[in-house]
User: Which sequence fits this backbone?
């Protein structure tokens, strides 16, 4: 019942934002453009949440998710989830309406190399007590919105998750500490006060 209420509230908010903003949800996180209103409506009214898509991708790939989000690629809306296990990165696509994990296409599996910029972020992933799904749940709880994107980041040398959440006035970015699960201050909002 709570999920239906949240989906209905998110859907109403997205429709209002789309009507005002011309179909694209503009982020309240530094002006970056978020997913299309159509993508958020599909996700909000779908059977599968971002958290559930991440869980399915992790089961399918046998690793931990480091990045996930809703994508509107040439009119096809889907969740895209990136997992890593034993240095191997896999990119999976999940249908938000059915939860079906699409078969991996050739070229979607790559091995992390030592000089890869992302290798540092991925190195301590196995030791993090908080998963990407935990971070999504914490961000949704903190904002009352629906997560549209989540990724592992390094915040001041510490592992953290950055989660974009669709709320009534656009997209809000929430940073979740990778160890404690606490909501961290958003450095961008401090810059806005100057």
Assistant:
């Amino acid at each position: 019942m709570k999920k239906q209420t949240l989906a209905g509230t998110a859907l109403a908010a997205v429709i209002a934002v789309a009507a005002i903003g011309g179909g694209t949800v503009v982020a309240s996180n530094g002006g970056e453009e978020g997913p299309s209103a159509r993508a958020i409506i599909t996700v909000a009214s779908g059977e599968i949440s971002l958290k559930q898509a991440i869980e399915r991708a992790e089961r399918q790939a046998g690793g931990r998710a480091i990045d996930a989000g809703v994508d509107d690629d040439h009119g096809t809306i889907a969740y895209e989830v990136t997992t890593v296990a034993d240095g191997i990165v896999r990119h999976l696509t999940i249908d938000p309406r059915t939860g079906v994990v699409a078969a991996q296409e050739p070229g979607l599996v790559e091995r992390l190399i030592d000089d890869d910029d992302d290798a540092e972020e991925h190195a301590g992933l196995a030791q993090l007590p908080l998963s990407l799904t935990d971070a999504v749940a914490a961000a949704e709880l903190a904002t009352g919105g629906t997560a549209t994107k989540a990724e592992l980041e390094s915040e001041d040398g510490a592992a953290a998750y950055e989660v974009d959440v669709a709320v009534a006035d656009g997209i809000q970015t929430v940073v979740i500490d990778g160890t404690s699960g606490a909501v961290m201050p958003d450095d961008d909002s401090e810059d806005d006060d100057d």
Q: What stands out?
A: Helices lie at 2-21, 37-45, 50-61, 119-123, 132-143, 187-192.
